[in-house]
Amino acid sequence: MSNLQQQALTTWKNFMCSGIAMQRQYADKAGLKTESVDVISQIIQKMAEESARSFEIQSIMVRTFLDASEQNLKRFNENITMYVDWQKRFTDYYLHNLNNNNNK
User: Fold this and answer.
1) Contact (CB, 8 A) for 45 and 62
2) Are 49 and 84 in contact (CB under 8 A)?
């Protein structure tokens, strides 16, 4: 997970938990039951965990894509180098034989 993703997730979680804590405080002062607030806190915790997991999977996918792209570019570069070398040798061979045939 990138630092930006981690910071965004931490900020979101802090924002939500702070709001719930304030609601709980007001509910307690008003004498209201707060069991639903506990359930909401658990849901937010689970959402934060799942979001962190999702960000981690996305990061792995991006790294895998970048690694594969790098390998493909390396292979392509090697193929270009080999093709140019082959083309040079073929041209040299052809010109050498052409010159030998013309000198006879």
Assistant:
1) no
2) no
> Can you give 40-102 as a three-state secondary structure string?
HHHHHHHHHHHHHHHHHHHHHHHHHHHHHHHHHHHHHHHHHHHHHHHHHHHHHHHHHHHHHHH
Q: What pLDDT is attached to residue 53?
A: 86
Please tell me the distance from the alpha carbon of residue 103 to that of residue 14, in angstroms, as a whole number. Answer: 87
Whether 9 and 55 have beta carbons less than 8 Å apart is answered as yes
Q: How far apart are CA 42 and CA 14, in angstroms?
A: 14
CA-nearest of 9, 16, 10, 11 to 37 is 16
Alpha carbon distance 56, 17 (integer Å): 23
pLDDT tens-digit map of 20-35: 888 888 888 888 777 7
What pLDDT does 97 receive? Answer: 84
